[in-house]
């Protein structure tokens, strides 16, 4: 029998960002990329990110969370997925309103803010070319030219890490640029050795940004929490916004605050439960084969 047989997978979403949660805290089993891809191809289980809960590593945390994109690659951060994990771990009727989970990006503080609304402290942004990472030294990571205009005219990207590498392009008119075409090319640009999340953004007010996101390993997405954080930070660094804004994505709005006191970026928004599925042994064994 396959080690995952009989396990329950929970399907959730954060503003349409499709999330699966698989709780393996009582076992040492670890998924490999082919199994992640197989789960993504199962009926009704297609996801943007799969959040796998393992036994805690650090004292005071509820779980160590490994984050997988649907192509089987592992991510360092997923803001919407972490907020879904918070809902999964915090009992609806319990007295506890906050918890900590650990990811590749470190320990993240999660908090219940209301009914099905959660926030997560995503950590501090990183701007050094080594930390993003970039393939070569870049003096100013906030303005890197890429020839993506209709006539090859360079557009400048702000690059940074929010646990994942991000490149943010600001435009006055988003529809002119087809992210479904440019996203895959930019994601795999040689400058990004670990690929990158690509965001096209338009600042509509000092506290409001509209974005579209091509997420590495997942493609076009209704919402991406770490991208929303990266866009707010990039906009604030350029003086286009303050340190707080509502970030609007195709799936809805997220609230992002870049705290001056400790450099933490806080992401807040709703989550939604969809359904649960029990993994069957015969399907898992066929997928593994």
Molecular structure report:
17% of the residues lie in helices and 39% in strands. The chain is of the alpha+beta class and 289 residues long. It has two domains: 8-121 and 272-288, Diaminopimelate Epimerase, Chain A, domain 1 (Roll); 144-263, Diaminopimelate Epimerase, Chain A, domain 1, CATH 3.10.310. Strands 6, 7, 8, 9, 10, 11, 12, 13, 14, 15, 16 and 17 form a twelve-stranded mixed beta sheet that branches. A six-stranded mixed beta sheet has the order 5-4-3-2-1-18. Helix 3 links the parallel strand 11 and strand 12. The longest helix has 13 residues, at 225-237. The radius of gyration is 19 Å and the shape is globular. The two termini are 13 Å apart. The model has no long low-confidence stretch (mean pLDDT 93).
Mean pLDDT: 93
Give me the Rg, rounded.
Answer: 19 Å
What is the fold-level CATH name, i.e. the topology of the largest domain?
A: Diaminopimelate Epimerase, Chain A, domain 1
**Secondary-structure arrangement, i.e. CATH architecture of the largest domain:** Roll
- DSSP summary: helix tally: 5
**End-to-end CA span:** 13 Å
Number of domains: 2
Please identify the structural class as seen in this structure.
alpha+beta
Largest sheet: 12 strands, mixed
CATH superfamily of the largest domain: Diaminopimelate Epimerase, Chain A, domain 1
Strand content: 35-45%
Please tell me what the overall shape is. globular
Detail the poorly predicted runs: none
What helical percentage do the residues reach?
A: 10-25%
Order of helices and strands, N to C?
A: EEHEEEHEEEEEEHEEEHEEEEH
Number of strands: 18
Regarding CATH, which class of the largest domain? Answer: Alpha Beta
């Amino acid at each position: 029998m396959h080690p995952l047989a009989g396990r329950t997978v929970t399907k959730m979403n954060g503003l349409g960002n499709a999330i699966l949660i698989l709780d393996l805290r009582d076992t040492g089993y670890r998924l490999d990329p082919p199994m992640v891809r197989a789960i993504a191809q199962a009926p009704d289980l297609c996801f943007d990110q799969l959040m796998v809960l393992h036994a805690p590593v650090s004292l005071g945390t509820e779980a160590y969370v490994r984050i997988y994109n649907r192509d089987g690659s592992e991510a360092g951060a997923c803001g919407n997925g972490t907020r879904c994990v918070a809902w999964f771990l915090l009992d609806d009727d319990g007295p506890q309103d906050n918890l900590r989970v650990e990811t590749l990006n470190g320990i993240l503080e999660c908090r219940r803010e209301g009914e099905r609304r959660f926030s997560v402290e995503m950590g501090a942004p990183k701007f050094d070319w080594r930390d993003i990472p970039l393939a070569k030294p870049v003096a100013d990571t906030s303005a890197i030219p890429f020839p993506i205009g209709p006539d090859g005219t360079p557009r400048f990207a702000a690059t940074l890490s929010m646990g994942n590498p991000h490149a943010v392009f600001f435009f006055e008119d988003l529809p002119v640029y087809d992210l479904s075409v440019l996203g895959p090319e930019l994601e795999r640009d040689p400058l990004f050795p670990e690929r990158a999340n690509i965001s096209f953004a338009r600042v509509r007010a000092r506290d409001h940004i509209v974005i579209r996101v091509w997420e590495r390993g997942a493609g076009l997405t209704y919402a991406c929490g770490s991208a929303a954080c990266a866009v707010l930070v990039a906009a604030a660094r350029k003086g286009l916004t303050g340190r707080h804004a509502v970030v609007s994505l195709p799936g809805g709005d997220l609230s992002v605050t870049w705290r001056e006191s400790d450099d933490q970026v806080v992401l807040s928004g709703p989550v939604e439960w969809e359904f649960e599925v029990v993994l069957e042994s015969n399907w898992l064994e066929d997928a593994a084969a």
